[in-house]
Amino acid sequence: MANVPVHEWTLLEAARMVREKKISSRELTGAILARIEALDPKVHAYITVLPEIAAAQAAACDEEQAKGTLRGPFHGVPVGLKDIFCTRGVRTTCGSRILHDFIPPYDACVTEKVLAAGAVVPGKHNMDEFAMGSSTETSFFGATRNPWDLSRIPGGSSGGTAAAVAAAMCFAGVGTDTGGSIRQPASLCGVVGVKPTYGRVSRYGMIAFASSLDQGGPIARTVADAAALLGVIAGYDRRDSTCVDIPVPDYLAAAERPVKGLRVGLPKEYYEGEGLSPEVRAAVEKALKALTDQGAVVVEVSLPHTSFALSTYYLIAPAEASSNLARYDGVRYGHRAEGASGLIEMMSRTRAEGFGDEVKRRIMIGTYALSAGYYDAFYGKAQKVRTLIRGDFTKAFEAADVLLTPTAPTPAFRLGEKTGDPLTMYLSDIYTIPCNLAGIPGISVPCGFSSEGLPIGAQLLSKSFREETLFTAAGAIERALPVRRVAPLEG
Amino acid sequence: MAFETVIGLEVHAQLSTRSKIFCACSTAFGAPPNANACPVCTGMPGVLPVLNRKAVECTIRTALATSCTVQRRSVFARKNYFYPDLPKAYQISQYELPVALGGHVDIEVDGGTKRIGITRIHMEEDAGKLVHEGEFAGAQASLADLNRCSVPLMEIVSEPDMRTPEEGGAYLRRLHDILVYLGVCDGNMEEGSFRCDANVSVRPVGQVAFGTKAELKNMNSFRNVEKALEYEIRRQVELIEDGGKVVQETRLWDANAGVTVSMRRKEEAHDYRYFPDPDLLPLIVDDSWVEELRTTIPEMPAEKIARLARQYGIPRYDAGILASTRALADFFEASAAIYGGNPKTTANECVHWKDAVLAGTLSPETIAHAVEDRERGTISATASKTLVELVLSTGKPFRTLRDEQGLTQVSDTSSLDILVDKVLAASPKEVEGYRAGKAGLLSFFVGQVMKESRGKANPKMVQEVLKKRLG
Amino acid sequence: MAITREEVLHVARLARLSLPEAEAERLREQLSAILDYVKQLDRLDTRDVVPTSHAIETGTPFRDDVVRPFGDREALLANAPDRLNDCFRVPRIIED
Q: Is A464 a catalytic residue?
């Protein structure tokens, strides 16, 4: 620990150091804020940095600790939030011009829980606009760069969070995942990312993209950190009707358990196809070997409807989004177009000005898929195929406890490389999307690097509400393949 | 050519819950603009709906009281359209799978009973209010007050079973009474808690297919619904007889001009793109809940009318008036329980003093005593009225006031004999005249006795005693 | 599966998105490509399949009928682009 710079500590190490009074929250927070100031001009992981608020929070934490109170497990430790979580009194933009000056009068449940755990929030992370994207290039506030190679994308839509964690500009963060938006950027940035089971984490105050798919989840540098953070944000919230009332187990303990006898399924459809880079395949095979070396057994499974998942997703998610984003009409908050002579013109120009191209594209597809005469063929059909995809996983989990797949087909690509054709960008999510459709949880854990030094992640999927199994398997991989977690980026 | 009318009615009833359907804001009427609002009902980013159990119970009870089948599983759907009084730009409603299906309401028309079918009942949230700034014609802007957003509504859709405006009015009144009886809606049409839209078409008698229908809106009383229907039927018939075609459109009732006016809105707007709301799970209603709610259904208007008529021997018409408001019927029965010697009189009294009964300023005991005293001849009808008014103004008990005011009639024969004898003794000429055949003098004697008794003698009995005495 | 220019404009109107001509054409191409791709779902026989509307099997939870005022009207109006008399102010509706 002595030779490790403060900002490179893990979340749990930092929390312990504060608890043991080896460092004050002021110092810890100061170090993070300094690092943000030094590096973020290059990385652009943050939309909003909160130096005064964070310093005040840190000071309060130190005072409370002096009086003998610790708020929670992360007392005094900076944990960032994707700018999709409402933070009372602090601008929350969702990466969009249409909310560029929106100040929510309430905290998201996730925000409340992170603060209740004693954490300090150093700022709000950059993201693809309204969480629609796989590269954080659609943000109104400019793209985030991958800390491992600043000419490349960090993944998306939680690219800001993944980059901030990888660049040690916070000890951990909370992102959101609708089709892979936590796991894919985690993989591309060499950190751990978890999409919990649908209903595990409250969506209250988490700006909605696709309501039946969205979940908030942790992004951190170690499996244990992610487990601890999930333990804090998970749990019942009666303000979210889709949040399930199931007790939160000890995820941290699960990360230590042995994998002997664990049945690891390899869905064959995920390993076929030309899109999968050979280097990614090789790295995932190393992760598999790490598991089998420790006593796990391999089973081959099939998820026959995998090739239909992208289409299913790109009908359901835009449809729900088209409805969720209709409230951004310039009436009660956010951007409003000026000089409109009538209401319809005001709304239409507001939305045309306020939304970027990807968002407009998805609103159009979604509106079309729901429209009269097309509902059955598009949205209705997709909802049925979704049932088939869920059925695939149910069957696979009869034979396997956990499924192992690549997270992303390739390591990080270059900025601008895939923005020309929407479909090409959508294909980045082929391995992550099915899990959202099924509602099951997934984790991405770093398992190697490409020959260009770019991180590669392996994805594990388990049955609903069996995140413990994910942490057990991911922990085993991490122990066998300890890889560098902080990008070599100097300020 | 003879035409037949086909009428279907859609009622939106605001449910009597304290809080809104999807958030904990108050539903109280008359609050300052946007005072009863929160991030959820104003559609801020990231907020979510949570369903009010009481709203569900009100709807289930209504379904049971109208013999509908309660669906064990129903789904909330989003109805998507843009309007400033609709903060989420969608209304949470129910579409393919509503809470209740297939019921009926029986109405009384032309001395008989007719059954009007109910197609469905579902739950939805209300929208806010848009007010035009300044003069309507020159208004530059509109102002949105979101207080009413997310107030719980129940939509009740009838089958197109009504054939006359009278049937329409009867159905509405009966449905209104059912909802008020259940306590699920306060039924106030002027304040908008009970709204009605009508679908009306005409077809040549004998034709099976329905004609093109027009949807009528903006009728804020039962009478206005009937008048609007009457007008629209006439309009459609005249149009067809002149060789024209009825256009499917929405028409607004203009109560001042007495006509319906086309809204002439572009029809393209109405692709609502309904889909199941992913923020709410399906509404699951199990048998035990339904049965528990069934026990809370009070006697409904139709049954009450029949029972009152039968049990108290009063005409159905009178029973109908009493049953039109549950509190009035309850009052009647409470009063009749105290004194049941003449239920018809009790009923008349209840109806006469209806306003005070419903305001709660009159007790069943008061009416019971009034009726009993009149029956026994202790007071006159006029005195009874006077005394009840005094009860209302002073709050003192009926019989206390009766005695204080000295309004007891003299009805016992011995006192009357004395009075009569006194009067006859004082008017010998008139006695002679009466005995000689001037029957009209009887009222003179009655008058004298009344004067002598300072109005307290029971005039009917005085007449009898006089007749006996005079021979 | 080509989507026509009229359909693009119709959908844009439904979604309240004003579209300049060039953008409408570009969107038409992109949407056509995406819709072509998703047509692959037609290859699946789903006649006997129940659609998944909700990711969770249980019924919707309930709230008690208790009033809990938000209590901060100013906070609700503070983000309004235009307001008057504690109302949200919007341009009038023009019937065209």
A: no
